[in-house]
Amino acid sequence: MESLFDMQRTNYKALKDCKNELVSLKEMWDLIALIDNQFDSWKQTLWDQINTDNLTALIKDMQSKQCNPTAPQNKIISKWRGFVALNDRVKNMNTVLPLIAQLHSEFMMPRHWKKLMHVTGQHVDHASPKFCMEDLIKLHLYKYSEEVTEIVDGAQKESKIEGKVNNIAKTWDDQFFTFEEKGDTHVLGELGTIIEFVETQSLELMTMMASKEVEEFKENVSKWQQTLKKVDQVIDIWGKVQKNWARLNPIFLASEDIRSQLPDDTKRFEKVDLDWKELMRDAVENNHVVEACCFEGRFEALDGMHQDIETCEKALNAYLEEKKKVFPRFYFIANQALLDILSNGNDPVIVNTQVGNCFDGLKDCVFDMTGPQPYKTALGMNAKDGEEYVEFPTPFVCNGAVEHYLCDLETKMQTTLKEILIDARDTTEEWDMGKPRHIWLNDYCAQISLLATQIVWTEETQRAFEELENGGSETAMKDSYNLVVNRITSLIERVRTDLTPEVRIKIITIITIDVHARDVVNGFVQKKIVDSGSFAWTSQLRFYMESRPKEPKKVC
Predict the structure, then answer these.
(1) In the chain, is it the N or the C terminus that has fewer CB atoms within a 10 Å radius of its CB?
(2) pTM score of the predicted model
């Protein structure tokens, strides 16, 4: 009308604003309808057809374009409740889709879906063929993001525990004992692999029990813990019994000396032997590790054998201790070697193979191998180096118990060397006359040659001091020094000749000792020491041969 009558037009701002708002309102509701239609189309997607990656990409696109509050087209409606609610729905869907992806985990079991329904307070039939995305949306998963993640992670950890327990069960299904024949019975073969499995898997089970996800498998894990503990206990005591049985078997069953000396313990061991053989027959028939170790009464039977064997061993050790008290040199050898000696005590030739272990310098004795066996007459002894032989003045006969005739043998060795030493000392008077020392030493073993040399040096040096103290020759010590030097020179000349190894070693050893003696005497000469009580002389290692009271023979 205002136009018709050429009147000034009125500006209806409220009407214009209303129009603009209606346009924006329509745009908002069109957007809501679009998003609703999009979400409605997703709701009917079946569980196994949900592609969360594609849906997430669509949601991201919605958030960056249609539902972006900062977009120019949304500038007016960005604060409107309808748009804000729509934006919240899109955000929730963006939160839900990753959770749905997690719920697709292969580790999700019915028990985990029950936990999920308990957390959300909603019920869904996840096993139904019609189970779809709408059912998941009803759970309002966006409210329970942390709980869903925890359930899925727990499912994965439970699956690992279940897999480990199944692997342990499968491992032990395939474990069998191996056996080796030993006489008329069997013994356990290699146990290294079985023991390694016990140790590593026991540690794994302990770690599982410390996890909160073990609850579903706690009973099974605990059962395997007890099983492996039993296997470990049985294998441990089984190995101990086998080792000790094998070690003591020839002692109590083959040694007549032990059987006669320890009759009660022999009977006890015989019972252990019978029980052991019966147990091994059963084990060979059923050699499955778990079944054999967990067999009712198996541990108790082995423990009983172990205690009986320990009783036998204590009695045996007490018996050996008595033998060691008689002949203390038995302490130098292992019990097994001692048992070999005692079990063959009636055959000195066999015992002779172990004699060298009891003495530092003795290798063995030489026996008269004529006449009836066992040979019991020893004619002499060989040194450890195998090069020197010393003959007994009179044959030595091994009579009586082995520990007693070994004591007598030790005495025989001492008296023999003592008599030879006395003879050697007496013949040293010929060193400066018919038989010089470098020739004289051929008649005696190295030990005697060296000892006699040191005795003579001590006596000659002592006489030099006496001459100096009593006003005799003023050159007595110098003369003694020259004598030592001359004897060393003679030995050096001989050692350069063609000699047997044992003679060469003997001469070199004496030269070494003589050089020290020469230096000592030279020190007396240089320092003009004339008193036999001086520290320079009394501090030396001196060797004397003296007669003990009421003993006609000389001792060193």
Answers:
(1) N
(2) 0.61
